[in-house]
Amino acid sequence: MKKISVILVLVLMLNPFIVYAKVNNAGFEGGIHKNEMDYKKTKQYKEVIFLTGEPILLEGTVAIKIKDKRLQYKYELSSKDGQVTLERDIELERIIDQSSHPSQIVEVNNILDYDEEIVIKNGKNKTTYTLVDYQFHNSTIDDCEPVVAFYSGNWVGTKTYSINKDEGQVVVEITGNIYGYDHYWGATETQKIHKDINYTLNSGDTTLEWSGYADIDVSFNRTKNIEYFENAAYLSSFDGGYTLTEKEETIMEYKYNLPYLDKTEQEQERVVAKLRNKGNGVERFETHPTQKKMYIPKFEDIKGYWAEKDIKKLAGLQIIDANNKYFGGNLPIERQEFAKWIAKAVNLVKEEKKPKRSYVKPEINPPVFSDVTRENPDYEYIKAIKEKGIMNGIGDNKFMPKGNLTRAQAVTIIIRALGIERLAPNPPFTTRFRDDEKIPKWAKKAIYVAQQIGLAEGSPEGYFYPNDYMTRAEAAVFLNRFISYLQEDFKTYYRDMILGY
Fold first, then answer.
1. pTM for the complete prediction?
2. Do residue 438 and residue 358 come from a single domain?
């Protein structure tokens, strides 16, 4: 087995206070795997190889073993007709540097060992491609914003195969880029890979040489959706309800430009004539979606209300307390309540399993703000919001939990949570709202960005009313719009636009 450098894709997952690295795909060979969210170490896997001058689809399994800072991959693949087999073992070392910036991680990945052999049978003939050298260098940067982890990386590499030990060689030059994000409502990673293939075969006194290339686009996607189902039973205590679904899909699209090889005596002449074999293909895996029924609220003041659907969704997700008799949509939303809604919407606070013992030593937690002590029922949510930098105090370390929230404050909080304030231009600039001059300076960038990405719509007349208090109903609609943005728009930017869908 040989030693070499290679890239390893890592996707960052946010939990309330710690960032975990997670392997999101099966190595960096341009293939895709099926993840049924069953946490099995062995996954179904597909990959296309181009070493022979034509695309060959291989299918099989990849076994992933994670131990400390090392990762091991074992591939066992074959073509559908069984004439082509591939065996590959890779061991990687992961180096993570988080010393320079508290929310950013720089990763460098190295392969400690590799072993790869491809066998192609054609009747009684057999050709063996053995990987004799593998140079691969990568670095990725991960930026962990309050509710989203963004990451990107790039790499270059060279794989050199011997043909039947000493009859020739194939050199594959590889370049690639990664773009990805991960948050509670979904994750997408897109890889764009380019391979230049140079083939040399010595057959007696004749040397056959050709070159070609292939482009591979790979996308890994996890999405949570909320679907409404009508209740067909008329005589029932409820008219319908929502279901939370979660599914994963992986897509591989490839295009190739290779020589035309017809395996006849005119093979070399055709290569010299530069006849090209061009084509493309698509392969994918989709998981069966998991399903979970959501709670059905029974507020007596929302039937036919303009925000009824949004209120039901949030209550079904248990973001809104559905145990009350009335929702009170026209009442101003309190800062404490908005903090709790956001923390629940992006799962910032997870329930901890209590130890099974008769006495539990009480935790010592200082006030998160001077007016938010441990006795506050929403202490954990406000604490998480503060530690993530999503909501700040007012004045002398006060949170004003019962204070009302303005529209400008709500939008600023959401954009700060996403970490995308940089999308606004340098001042001075104006938004498209007719009351732009009333927008506070501290909220200008956030409102501009929210307007650009469709989170801040304003009134039909073109006003935003930045200093008006946001009502509970408006907050429910706004938060649902935020969740939908996390579900769909991120995927559009990180998959559809990059891949040209």
1. 0.87
2. yes
